[in-house]
Amino acid sequence: PISAAEARSYLATVTPAAEGSLTGYSRAQFPHWSTVSGTCNTRETVLKRDGVNVVTDSSCAAVSGSWYSEYDGATWTAASDIDIDHMVPLAEAWRSGANSWTTAQRQQFANDLTRPQLIAVTDNVNQAKGDLDPGKWLPPRTAYRCTYARMWVQVKQYWGLKMDSGEKTALVNVLNGC
Question: Domain extents for the chain?
């Protein structure tokens, strides 16, 4: 992700805006887990990228390996215990400006392997995060919060998504401690 200094510099230019509504939102508005190569989709690609000694079957499903979840420090050996987190949740993106994007743009966002938008993490920790922004949720593993904030800012900046005041304040506070 971008450096803490770069993230702080960008945040200094952000004018907070009220979050939009969820009217019209559904996960289907963000086609995700697109095919990346052959039979491998985005989820499987992230599992292979973020795992160690990952072995896949002929349909690209992970059958063995291990995954370290940066959010809580847990290590898992079953891909079923891992969620691929959208760093900036899809509903958060919708409320922050993605509601005006085309479906193709939302699909690119939901499958973005270039920016730090997708990360393999413990499933129940990801589910606890839900669609919350950093003003309402930060990773329980405090050692990861600086990286998380840098990643969040990079994704929001690249995609031109708005931030509300609570989100910006939380990010500034985290980044000032980095």
Answer: 4-176
3-state secondary structure of 138: coil
CA distances from 69 to 64, 83, 89, 114, 125 (A): 16, 10, 17, 20, 9
What CA–CA distance (Å, rounded) separates 175 from 91? 24
**CA 162 – CA 178 distance, rounded (Å):** 23
pLDDT by residue (tens digit) across 157-172?
Answer: 999 999 999 999 999 9
* Cα–Cα distance measured from residue 106 to residue 94, given in angstroms and rounded to the nearest whole number: 9
Token digits of residue 39: 């039979």
Which structure tokens are listed for 131?
Answer: 């669609």
The 3-state DSSP class for residue 75 equals: strand
Per-residue pLDDT tens over the stretch 4-34: 999 999 999 999 999 999 999 999 999 999 9
Name the CA radius of gyration of the chain, rounded: 16
Q: How far, in Å, CA of 132 to CA of 138, rounded?
A: 9
Task: Using a cut of 0.90, tell me whether the model's pTM lies above it.
Answer: yes
Q: Do the Cβ atoms of 69 and 82 come closer than 8 Å? A: yes
What's the N-to-C CA distance of the chain in angstroms? 13
> Which residue, chain included where needed, has tokens 């760093």?
87
State the angle between helix axes of 145-159 and 4-11 in degrees (0 to 180), rounded to the nearest 10. Answer: 50
